[in-house]
Design goal:
The chain is 45% helix and 13% strand. By secondary structure, the chain is of the alpha/beta class. It folds into three domains: 75 residues; 178 residues, Rossmann fold, CATH 3.40.50.450; 56 residues, Arc Repressor Mutant, subunit A (Orthogonal Bundle). A nine-stranded mixed β-sheet has the order 1-2-6-5-4-3-7-8-9, sandwiched between helices. Helix 7 runs parallel beside helix 8 and helix 10 crosses helix 11. The longest helix is centred in the first third of the chain and has 21 residues.
Length: 373
């Protein structure tokens, strides 16, 4: 690790160091090298600060000592660092006035890719949300083979976003709320390994040894919210981490998109509120989202179907569609008859028409599910 990178890592160990102070240093012409070399009196004079923990030379020397230890860990594990003083710090994230002073990255994903999309949502995702994420990413991948999908490695929607990216050979970045010496949740360690192996990355603002506390997940959300062009909330209750991410994204002028759900569905309540309050655009097909974001593909590797998010159905077909839309798994005919109250003869006739129209699909065991959007 070169000396400038080492000093950038050391900044993350300085008490009270944040983005505003780094920017103040730059404004006053104090380089990171000068910051660590200057006496307390000189630093106080040049920065116009009389009393602060970072002025203490012993504090700065201790931060430098910790950085040297951290650099050994980083070199052993192939971890790269970016500080706000570096030219290759992610440009979108640098616009955040609370941007991390230093980022630690394990993997090769481009953090300044031309097209980047954050996908977030509840850990308690339904089949509806998971299916939408899987099919949206598949369709976007056909237009943007270099698209980077960003999420937070949590269970539910986050995992679905990362898995969809991997399935479609897209790089994906998992932003975590702890040091890179571990992975949380532990059940996603294999997913993290596959992300890195496929050219993605695990990203953190914390050095090794920092454990995942609740407040750190909220801090992590500001990175997910502002390091991309837009944030898609696939499913969320009225309160939760995804809504926090949405609020940050909106405050920084990022495009906000939300997947609508059925009224009264707890896991869609947050998304519905974002749409109702006109804070978020309503999620639709990949083509519609591309139009919302003004994305122009340079080439098209395939021609994805224009998936209809909510077919215009009435009567029996509407009852069947709604039953399948919120089912956790494909439904057998008997379960559909019980759920919809439609007589078996009429039910089979409607199922046949909907299958012919490409709305549903018949699976082994005479079970039915919606054709993915």
């Amino acid at each position: 690790m070169d000396s400038h990178r080492l000093l950038g890592v050391a900044l993350s160990f300085v008490p009270g160091m944040d983005a505003s102070l780094v920017r103040h240093m730059d404004k006053e012409g104090v380089t990171v090298e000068e910051f660590f070399a200057a006496s307390q009196q000189e630093l106080s004079r040049r920065l116009g600060v009389r009393s602060a923990a970072f002025l203490d030379k012993m504090m700065r020397d201790e931060a430098l000592f910790k950085a040297k230890k951290e650099s050994e860990f980083m070199e052993r594990h192939g971890i790269k660092s970016f500080s706000l003083t570096d030219e290759d710090y992610p440009s979108r994230l640098a616009d955040n006035d609370k941007a991390p002073v230093t980022l630690f990255k394990l993997g090769d994903a481009d953090l300044d890719a031309e097209s980047m999309l954050s996908i977030v949502g509840t850990r308690h995702a339904t089949a509806y949300g998971m299916r939408y994420v899987a099919n949206l990413v598949e369709d976007l991948a056909a237009y943007f083979p270099g698209l980077v999908i960003v999420s937070g490695l949590a269970l539910g929607i986050d995992s679905a976003a990362h898995e969809a990216a991997l399935s479609n050979r897209l790089p994906t970045v998992a932003v975590v709320a702890h040091g890179l010496n571990t992975i949380y949740p532990a059940v996603n360690r294999d997913l993290a390994r596959r992300i890195i192996a496929a050219g993605g990355a695990i990203l953190s603002e914390y050095p090794s040894g920092v454990t995942p506390y609740k407040s750190r997940f909220l801090e992590r959300n500001r990175i997910v919210a502002t390091m991309t062009d837009a944030v898609l909330v696939a499913e969320s209750a009225e309160k939760g981490g995804a809504m926090s991410t949405a609020a940050v994204a909106s405050s920084y002028g990022r495009e906000l998109i939300a997947l609508p759900g059925r009224i009264g569905d707890e896991m869609s309540a947050g998304c519905n509120r974002l749409i109702r309050s006109q804070k978020a655009m309503m999620a639709g097909s990949a083509v519609e989202i591309m139009s919302m974001l003004g994305w122009q593909p340079k080439s098209i590797a395939a021609t994805p179907k224009q998936r209809d998010l909510f077919p215009e159905l009435e009567g029996k077909e509407k009852l069947i569609y709604d039953a399948l839309r919120f089912a956790q798994e494909p439904m057998p005919v008997d379960a559909l008859r019980e759920r919809t109250g439609i007589p078996i003869h009429d039910l089979m006739a409607s199922l046949g028409e909907m299958e012919f129209d490409g709305i549903i699909q018949r699976l082994p065991g005479n079970r039915f599910s919606l054709i993915p959007y």
